[in-house]
Specification:
This protein has helices at 3-15, 19-31, 33-55, 59-63, 66-89, 95-102, 105-117, 120-129, 141-171, 178-200. With 206 residues, it is mainly α. The longest helix is centred in the C-terminal third of the chain and has 31 residues, at 141-171. It is globular. Residues 94-100 have low confidence and may be disordered. Keywords: Cell membrane, Membrane, Transmembrane, Transmembrane helix. The chain crosses the membrane at residues 6-25, 37-61, 67-85, 113-133, 145-166, 186-204. It is found in: Cell membrane.
Length: 206
Amino acid sequence: MNIIGFLSASILLTLMPGPDILFVITQSILRGKKAGIIFATGLCTGLIVHTATVSLGLSLLLYQSPIAFIILKFMGAAYLIYLSVQSFLHRNSDTLAMSRHQQAEQKLYKKGILMNILNPKVLLFFIAFFPQFVNPTKTNVSGELLLLGVLFMLQAWFVFSFVAILSDRLSRRLMQQKHFSLAMHYIESLVYLTIGISLIFVGISY
């Protein structure tokens, strides 16, 4: 098992523009680096479910069951669209004064977990990516998959945390401007909506 190669590829993939990193950036800009890190921790916690599913072979059940896959992706899409509506409705709130205090840390953490678990794209990615670094001749394939999952979670958390801190520092002055703050709320809502709608069109290639 090429751990260095796996970590290198994982870091590059995590840094690529995608839903998770966009969510971390928007949360960090709107609510500060602590909120971004808490949200990232929730996302990475959700990876535990996907890792366990892949390592135990349960992912094959979902992969071979169109109905289960459709249910999961529509649940994920519905949740993201709901978050989009909520973000839009609260677009005029005082972000600096209200969001950092009223947005409970536990709520942010749970949001990250749910968004990750309900995203079937993550599971499909694990199914396609992890086996490339596993030795199929070994008997403990599940153990190797589990190890890869843990390593992926750890690197993702460090990358997301770095992005959260950087986003907060770069946007601190800009967030004092009301127009920028309002624009970020619109962007947050649009990101949720776009990813939610895109989930509806996710399919499995047999």
